[in-house]
User: Fold these one by one.
Assistant:
Number 1:
Amino acid sequence: ANKRAFCYWGESKQAVTRCMGACVSGFAHYQDIVVPGPGKYEYFVKCITGTGEEAFLEIPVFVDTTPPVMLYVYDNTTLPGNPDVSWFTNKIRVAFLGNDSESGVSHYLVTLRERDNPSAVAIDNLVSDVLDGQPFFITFSHNGSSLVLTDGVTYRFDVRCVNHVGLKSPFMVSDGVEIDVSKAPGHCFDMVK
C-alpha cells in the first residue's frame, strides 16, 4: 500500500473479514495461508486507510507440487542414411518436448556438451521457449555468441523443462550427433548457387 492501511482477506468477495498478519495499520501486509493441496485458489484483499479510502484486490494462486517430465530429446540430423552425423559446425538440430499436466511447461533449459568429455560445454543452460516439440536449429550459444562446433567431436544435448511455478524436470540426454564436415554434400562447397 502507498498509504498506511488496515487490510483484510477472505476466500470470496463477500467474506473479506479476516485481519491480515498482526492486524495493525501499515504499508506492507502479509498473510500465511495453508491450502489443502495442489490446485487453483482465489483470495481477496481489502485495505482501508484511516480516512476511509478502500482498495480491493483479487489474488489468484496456483499450487503445483509436481515437477514436469521430459518426453523426448532428439538430435537426429537430416543426413540421408546417417541421422547421427552432421556436417555443420555453426548450427545443430534438436527437438524436445516435456509435459506438465498441472501448470504447463514454461520453457526449457538446453545444454550441449561433448559426449565423451562432458565437462566441455558448448551451450550452457540456454533458455528455449520453443514449446511445439518440432526440430529446429540452434545457431548461438547461451551468451549470444555464434555457435562453434568441432569437426570429429560427438555432441549430446542435456535438456530439462521448467513449469510455470518454477519446478524443473530431471535432465533427459540425447543419443549424440557427430560433427563430420566430410559428409557435406559437394554442392555446399562448390560456390555454385
Note: The chain has no helices and 13 strands.
Number 2:
Amino acid sequence: GLEPDAFLVLTHAERFPTAGYVQSRTWGFPAYEAVAYPLVSGLGQTAGKIYSLGWFLLAVALFFGLARRQAPLASATLATLGFALLPVSLISGNTLLETSQGMALALVAVGAFFRWLDAPRPGTLYLLAAALGLATATRPDYVVLSAACGVALLIAARPSWRPAVVASAIYLALAALPFTLYGSQTFGLGVV
C-alpha cells in the first residue's frame, strides 16, 4: 500500500489524461507533479517510484560531494551513509512524493551557495537561483531556504546589483511558472 499523500498523487496521476492537472494536496507540488502525473498515467506507479528513486540517488551523490569538500573520505562516507539511512530519505526514494526531488534541488542550491561564497561568480549565483526556484516550484515551502540564502548572501558577500537582479528574476520565473500554468486552468492533456 501507499501512504495517504502518495495515494493522492497516484489517484490524480491516473486521472490526468482526462481530468488534467489537479493538485494532489493543499497548494500542490507542481514541478514534481508536472513530471510524475504523465509518467504514472502512461507507464504506471513503478515509473513514478523510479523517478523518485533517481532524485534520491542524486541527492545522496550531492550530499557526498558536499561532505567530501569538507571532510576526509571516511568521514564523508559515514556522513553520507547517515543521510541516506534517514527515514525521510529512505521513504522519499521509494514513494510517489516530491521529497527526493526537493531535497536534491536544495542540495544543488547549498553547493552553489558555498561555491559562490568561495568564488563569487554570476554563473554560480544563477545556478543557486535556478536550483532554489525549481525547489520552490517542487515544494513551495522551499521559499524559506530561498529567503535564508538570499539574506545570507546579502549579509556575507553583497553581490553586485546586476547579477542579483538576474538571479532574482531566474528564481521568480522558475518558482512561479508551474503555478502560472496551473492558474490558467489547463495543463498537459486535459482541462481542470
Note: Confidence is low (pLDDT under 50) at residues 185-192.
